[in-house]
Amino acid sequence: MSAAILQVVGYQNSGKTLFIETFIKEAKNRGLKIGVIKHHGHGKPDVYDRKKDTGRHRHAGAVVTGVSGDGLLSINAMNEKEWELEKIISVYSSFELDLIMIEGYKRHHFPRVVMLRDHRDDGLLVGSMIKAIVTQGSQLPNTQSYHVQDINKCIDHLLEELQNGVL
Q1: d(Cα 49, Cα 65) in Å, to the nearest integer?
Q2: 16, 104, 109, 141: which has the fewest Cβ within 10 Å?
C-alpha cells in the first residue's frame, strides 16, 4: 500500500505549521502514521552541529550521512541541485506511512489544503485538487472551507476521507 499525499499550502504566517501539527496529533490518536516533507524556501536549512560526527562526515564530503539510536534514524543527504519533490516522496515511501504531508511546494499540485490569510492569497485557489480551504477571514461560499478556529472540523473530515481511502 502506498501512502496518500496531502499538501498544505499558504503564505508565511497563514497557519500551515499549526494545521499540520494538529493534524499529526489527531492522526496519531487514530493509529495512523504520518510523514512530513517541508519546503525550506529561504536558502539551506540549518543542519546538525559540524562538530558532531555526522556533521564532520558531511563537512568531509559525504553525500549521505545518518545516525541512529534509541529508535531514531536521522538522515541528511546532500545533492548538488535542489531536491525534486518526487524524489523525496520516493524516499518517504519506504517508511510504511498512511499519509505523507507536504508543507509548501506551492507550484506542485497534490490533493491540498489551502491556508488563506485574506483575499490577497486567493491566487492559491488554483486547480481542482483542493480538498479544503482554511481561512483567517470569512468562509468561502460553495467550498469545503473552514475558519481557522474550526480546524479540528477540517482535520476530522480529512482524516475520515483518509481512513475511507478517498484522500
Answers
A1: 13
A2: 141
Domain ranges of the chain: 4-46+80-163
> Helix, strand, coil % (nearest 5) of the chain?
35, 25, 40
Query: How far is 32 from 25, CA to CA, in rounded Å?
Result: 10
Give the integer Cα–Cα distance in Å for 137 and 135: 5
Assign a CATH topology to domain 4-46+80-163: Rossmann fold (3.40.50)
- Mention every residue, 6+ apart, whose C-beta is less than 8 A from residue 136: 14, 15, 116, 117, 118, 147, 148
pLDDT tens digits, one per residue of 86-123: 999 999 999 999 999 999 898 898 999 999 999 899 89
Q: Which of 93, 125, 127 is nearest to 110 (CA)?
A: 127
Grid coordinates given for 65: 550521512
Grid cell locating 166: 478517498
